[in-house]
Amino acid sequence: MSKQSPGNRFRWLPYLYAAGSVFWLILLTQFAAYLISSVGRDQLRQALLEQGFKGNLDTLFLVDASLIVFVEVAAAILHGVAYYGLRGFRAWGWVVAVLVAAAWSLVLVGIPLLVFLLRRPTRQAYGIS
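Given the sequence above, the corresponding structure tokens read:
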């Protein structure tokens, strides 16, 4: 049973998270293209060498690529979960949206959204008191 929309004030909020999910999927696609292309892999390896890395380059490359893919997939999934939760005015959607906004606030972009989500009318609209 979904709650009724409290008004037009929150209509844009889920779409902001949908745009974030698309953003992370585009970044993931670009990075996958680098990994698939032999030229791209060579460029990434060359960048590691230019930074002065001395050691097992293949292991570092594998760990680095795995971490980047994991972060980008996790970010896309979290943005998607926030989108669907906010769209249905679910409390768990609000919680995930706050977590994503808090993560974005580390680069200062998410601070205004975090403030908006933590306001009393927004919390009450999603069933958080």
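The helical segments are 13-36, 38-50, 57-87, 91-104, 111-118, 120-125. Try to locate this feature in the token string yourself.
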